[in-house]
Amino acid sequence: PWTGRAMGVAMVQILLLVIWAPSWDRITLIEPHSDMSVFCFTQTDLYSGALFVQVCLGWNLYLSTVLVLVVTALYTIAGGLVAVIYTDALQTLIMVIGAVTLAVKAFGEIGGYQNLEEAYLKAVPAKIIPNTTCHLPRADAMHLFRDPVSGDLPWTGMTFGLSVLATWYWCTDQVIVQRSLSAKNLNHAKAGSILASYLKMLPLVVIIMPGMISRVLYPDAVACVDPTECARVCGAEVGCSNIAYPKLVVELMPSGLRGLMIAVMMAALMSSLTSVFNSSSTLFTMDVWRKVRPDAGERELLLVGRLATVVLVAVSVVWIPILQSSSGGQLYIYIQSVTSALAPPVTAVFALAVFWRRANEQGAFWGLMVGLAAGLARLGLEFAHPTPRCGTSDERPSILRDIHYLHFAVLLCALTAVVVVGLSLLTDPPMESQVSPGAWGHPPRATQHVPKDQLDTRAPHPLPAQLGRGPPATALRDTAETPFWSSICCVNAVLLMCINVFFYAYFA
């Protein structure tokens, strides 16, 4: 909603793009370091949750942060992935009902959707900076495809750069992969993705447009540009876009519904936080600690995972003041710019591992290293040279001023791919046994349906280092698909693609 306030409907492209990964042993050691998006998501979730509590209840920002942390950590640490999934399922229902209720109320305030564009283009704060235009809404606010050079979200970056980021998130991100792997069977995993895709169609109407309506109704607060005025309104001199949705809730909703919306936002934020907490714990324990201490027992891994989560949260809290002033005060843009610097190398390695059987460990490892170094260099420049405020000249380095972060994502993905291909061709090809059965053109392993009464549930003979540690292994579940439900999932996938194309055509 905060970015919808500033940029309009183009942000929905990030929400509409909905797309597991081969791995080598050495690469698992650097993936947690390159997957700094976990850190990014933690700090943004904490900040947005605390900001919402601050606006709605008037509490101190850091006190609000502690409140969100304590409530979330209690059931995440106590219940693990099972608690996360069950609470997510319940909170999703609450979120949809609350968000739809607020959207209906907001559209009623401006006389319906037909008045949105006209009202939005007239939403200008009373206090402006003379001889500037940053207080004016964008003329292309109701369009998805914007100028590739001067556009704030160029269509080239949104089409190609965002595809790189979406592939990384929906195919390789730990949060999504954990949920897919926790499904009962393949049909359930597909159906879960289909349901999530349908829910992804809602944000345009229940998140982006209400953010635009918030600017229409409260331009002096949400659309402020004067640093002094912005500091008075929300405590951030760079802008108050981030308070668009909380402001709408506080000012528009009656007491009972206001309480519902506070519950909705807390549910959404805690849902994201629990996912990140659980995923970060798994990443560190399985990909790092187990390599350092291969004899570690389950109790030790559990303790280390919880300690890693505590450290991650502590650093995220300390980072909040920096986040407040980043990306012109627009939280969602901060998330996307950080992801654009870190995710493309993973996308390139993943795509080549799936579609090019010649890719090997040497190429993948050094491709990730080069891509990570280039991405961190860009990220360092962004923190050292923040977006200039309204009325000041842009003196940032050319790589920041002239290359949009989504365009940089495409270039970084291409650079990584070149390194992977080059080194793979210069070194020995992988052995046939090392090629994943999920690789393109590689014959899949036959799936056999074994009757339950014939399943061998006995644990395999344990390795000496694993004796007496952890629960006994059980037989793998049957991965065979039911043809009827498989067809239902495929039909819905095609239908979703058609709906997606319609949105792109309508708002082009």
Describe it.
This protein is mainly α. The chain has one domain: Up-down Bundle (Sodium/glucose cotransporter), CATH 1.20.1730.10. The chain has 21 helices and no strands. The longest helix has 49 residues, at 61-109. The model is unreliable at 14-25, 459-468 and 472-476 (pLDDT under 50). This is Sodium/mannose cotransporter SLC5A10.
Q: What is the total number of structural domains?
A: 1
Helix percent reads 55-70%
The major sheet is characterized as:
none
Mean pLDDT: 78
Question: Tell me, what is the CATH class?
Answer: Mainly Alpha
Q: If you consult CATH, what is the topology?
A: Sodium/glucose cotransporter
Global structural class? mainly alpha
Task: Kindly state the number of beta strands.
Answer: 0
Radius of gyration: 24 Å
Number of helices: 21
CATH arch. level architecture: Up-down Bundle
Identify the overall geometry: globular
- Oligomerization: single chain
Separation, N- and C-terminal Cα atoms: 20 Å
Order of helices and strands: HHHHHHHHHHHHHHHHHHHHH
Strand fraction band?
under 5%
Q: Name the CATH superfamily classification.
A: Sodium/glucose cotransporter
Keywords: Cell membrane, Glycoprotein, Ion transport, Membrane, Sodium, Sodium transport, Sugar transport, Transmembrane, Transmembrane helix, Transport
Main location: membrane
Pfam family, one: SSF
Region (Disordered): 435-472
